[in-house]
Amino acid sequence: MSLLSEDGKKTVLSFGDWVNANSPEIPPEIDYAKGGDPKGPGAHGHDDHGHEDHGHEDHGHDDHGHEEAHGHDGHGHDDAHGHDAHGEHGHEHAHFEPHEIVMPKREKKPKVKREKVQLTGVEHSYRVFAVISGILLALVLLVTVATLPRFGSADAPAVNEVSRRYLEQGLTDTGAVNAVAGIILDYRAFDTLGESVVLFTATVTVIFLLQQSKRKNGEEKTEDEVDVNTGVRSLPAKVIIGITFPFILLYGIYVVLNGHLSPGGGFSGGTILGGGLILCHMVNGERFTERFITVKRCTQIMAAGLFVYIGLKTYSILTGANGAASAIPLGTPGSIFSAGLILPLNICVGLVVACTMYALYNLFTSWRS
Amino acid sequence: MTLIEVLLLVFLVACAVSVFFIKRLLNAVIVFMSYSSIMAVLWISLESPDLAITEAAVGCGVTTMLFILTLKKINALREEGTDQDESTI
């Protein structure tokens, strides 16, 4: 009994006491009948009571058992009928068949009210604290937003000589029609390198973790032991993906290659590519996608992309730092072969991002704890 | 601010708040996805199409897929009491 009361399952406990009077082995069954589903057995219909009261009664339970159980039944106004019925049946029959009859009536309740029960005093104060701090945070954020300068106003702090320089000189400096691409892949290319390295590191870490668990006993698991995605059986999904998959890839490639001319670039285009691959993997299964891309190839592509990126940026940083003119022409602004290094850098970033997305998805899919 | 933007913003807040109160995890993920698509439209109205594309691709696409994969892995996609779900996602 004390075990049950530790979890704060008051109603279970009161029932347990009822049961104890009749048969010693019932508590689990009661638990199930009461909770309505085996996963969340602690859910009862007592939510509208003060939680502290429950806590007190809880302690009482340990000491008195029967009387407190009675009192509890009186409290449960929602379930009052059910309780009484249970109690009477329990008295009549030592075996607890009636619960299986009563159960369907209250199937839905636990789902709705699951979280409100089971609070000890400490948890209750945590919850109060969480609400208060949440409200405070919201207030602070709202006040901050209220004091922000208007969108696009001329005296905003963001309008300074840096942004003016980017906007006025960006085209002649970088050759990119899309100013954003010019900033993130030319002026601030080092940031983008860092972001790509973060993605690469994340993938490597995930590979490390998940493949360790694959080879637990020194030998690779066979196919039965690893979750191999076999795809879905739904025909409409297959047809739709079969039609749209080439277009998704094409659009992703377009966004990557056109990054210096139109909105988009390596990150968004790479994500679109990765999303397309993930969809294909979802629907057609591992056997289909592994013909053209595997996790191993993903890591190779990512490493190659990063090295090319580093090499290209090393060149441009060296020439820029020494005041030497870059040998790479900027080209005519607006044409596809323009903007110097931005196009190859975009391709590198796009490959890294696409492979990250796909590799993460693939690893998580095939992993089984 | 035009009327459509106000509507979108109201819907955005509604989506953001309702995620907390939705009990079924799959529905919450779908609402979260709609939040991202609304946000993508709002980015366009704020004249930042680059962010809009990224938001649509990352927030609406890949994040949703990873969430659904997670739900699948923890067996949360299955409705309790029924075990019709045998397809692999």
Which characteristics define this entry?
heterodimer, A: 369 residues, mainly alpha, 67% helix, 0% strand, disordered N terminus, B: 89 residues, 3 helices, 73% helix, flat, disordered C terminus
Note down, in words, how this protein is organized.
The complex is a heterodimer of chains A (369) and B (89). With 369 residues, chain A is mainly α. Chain A folds into two domains: 2-121, no CATH class; 176-366, no CATH class. Chain A is built from 17 helices and no strands. Chain A has helices spanning 2-6, 10-22, 27-35, 51-64, 66-75, 80-92, 98-102, 109-113, 121-147, 161-174, 179-187, 189-214, 235-257, 266-284, 286-289, 295-321, 342-366. The longest helix of chain A is centred in the middle third of the chain and has 27 residues, at 121-147. In chain A, 31% of the residues are buried. The model of chain A is unreliable at 1-109 (pLDDT under 50). Chain B has 89 residues and is mainly alpha-helical. Chain B has a domain at 20-73. Chain B contains three helices and no strands. Chain B has helices spanning 3-21, 25-45, 49-73. Chain A binds chain B through residues 37, 39, 111-112, 151, 178, 180, 227, 229-234, 255, 263-265, 267-268, 271-272, 274-275, 278-279, 282, 285, 357, 360-361, 364-365, 367, and chain B through 23, 46, 49-50, 52-54, 57-58, 61-62, 65-66, 69-70, 73, 80, 87-89.
Brief synopsis:
Chain A is mostly helical and 369 residues long.
How do the helices and strands line up, and which of them pair or pack?
The complex is a heterodimer of chains A (369) and B (89).
Chain A (H helix, E strand, L loop, with lengths): L1 H5 L3 H13 L4 H9 L15 H14 L1 H10 L4 H13 L5 H5 L6 H5 L7 H27 L13 H14 L4 H9 L1 H26 L20 H23 L8 H19 L1 H4 L5 H27 L20 H25 L3
Helix pairs in contact in A: 2-3, 2-5, 2-6, 4-5, 10-11, 11-12, 12-16, 12-17, 13-14, 14-17, 16-17
Chain B lengths: L2 H19 L3 H21 L3 H25 L16
